[in-house]
Give the backbone structure.
Amino acid sequence: MAQIGYSKKVMEHFMNPRNVGVIENPDGYGQVGNPVCGDLMEIFITVKDDRVDDIKFRTFGCGSAIAVSSMVTEMAKGKTLDEAIKITRKDVAEELGGLPPQKMHCSNLGADALHAAIKDYWVKIGKIKPEEAKPEEESHEGEGESCGT
Ligand code: FES
């Protein structure tokens, strides 16, 4: 199963993903599609005292997307929403010890879905307007290569 190019941490999170599943009636819900491969990611959060109290993910993405999402959920759990929304795609990839270049696009899903879930909650409580919850425009430069799986 081990493949050249994947860090131990990626493999470990892929084999034992944390926080997989669905939260019924979540406080925030984010769903994003990957423009490169067409895969899908969902993140569910509950919020308590302005912190991410519980978080779960469900993905139709590849192994790297699973590892990334598992890591994102671990990084976000317990953080304040203001801290959690600052978790970037790059932070997650770095925390995992890097991803092979052709899989970098997979790391976008986790962070993007987390941000979408937090914004969904903020819209619900009236902190931001729905139009402010639109997905951020991050550059997809250099992410054009799909892994083809
Ligand atoms: Fe689609 Fe990785 S998320 S190939």
